[in-house]
Amino acid sequence: LYSPSIAPSQFRPPPQRHPTMLTTRSTPGFQTTTGVPNGIGTEVLLIDPMLATGGSATGAAQVLKQAGVQSLRFVCLVAAPEGIQMFHRHHPEVPIYTAAIDRQLNDKGYILPGLGDAGDRLFGT
Q1: What is the pTM of this model?
Q2: Residue 42 has what DSSP assignment?
């Protein structure tokens, strides 16, 4: 399981990232590697709870493509139309699989009606 080091941009693309840093999850914790890990594979699911503005997803897809990924799919629970448009503007060949498409983003870049902050829900903050 690899995670590109990307910070959400909230309508300020491009998202901030560490150009060649990927975090790999291993037991018992997280370990940071520099450069592209060996064996990343060519079939990759890019998974994020939400696709809001599309900035982070677009950046993550670019990192994975630069790492040599040839077959990429994006999977999320909830997406906003604006995020789908942004992602497909940059990566039209990458399919998006989502459980729901909500109506829009608000002025802060949050999905409406949405789920709240996914990070807060995952980590209880």
Answers
A1: 0.72
A2: S
